[in-house]
Specification:
The chain is an all-alpha fold. It has 5 helices and no strands. It is a multi-pass membrane protein.
């Protein structure tokens, strides 16, 4: 009886190794790092964009004469903390979505090139990118935001 259980276990682990042999976690880490760092670098400009979008002429909101005026006003009023107001959810979102995208993209490319001597065609790279986008969208939106989709 134990021999049969071990046989099932061995074939089960072989199935998992077949599925996951194309997975490289380095790509996930690289995507997360890139998403987080780009968000940290550009968040003040995103904040300026939002400030301009909500500055609809009401007297309650501050008036800005341009991007630099907006940045310096925020800096003078709130300092560095003001420039990075609301950065945490953006870091989570960008890091996880880019991490998942690179994870899936490289796994899909690796799967498609297995056993091939030649490189992928340009259209195959584009299709791989689209498939990775769909996979990361599905994991991000459906797994982490199920209430939005009625799940």
């Amino acid at each position: 009886m134990t021999g049969q259980g071990q046989g099932q276990s061995a074939s089960g682990s072989s199935a998992w190794s077949t599925v996951f042999r194309h997975v490289r976690y380095e790509n996930l880490i690289a995507g997360v790092s890139g998403g987080v760092l780009s968000n940290l670098a550009l968040h003040p400009l995103d904040l300026v964009k939002i400030r301009f979008a909500v500055s609809d002429g009401l007297e309650l909101r501050p008036k800005y004469n341009g991007i630099l005026h907006c940045l310096t006003t925020i800096w003078k009023l709130d300092g560095l903390r003001g420039l990075y107001q609301g950065v945490t959810p953006n870091i989570w979102g960008a890091g996880l979505s880019w991490g998942l995208y690179f994870f899936f993209y490289n796994a899909i490319k690796s799967y498609k090139t297995e056993g091939r001597a030649e490189r992928l065609e340009a259209t195959e790279y584009l299709v791989s990118a689209a498939e990775a986008g769909i996979c990361s969208w599905a994991v991000w939106n459906i797994a982490w935001c199920p209430s939005v989709y009625g799940i």
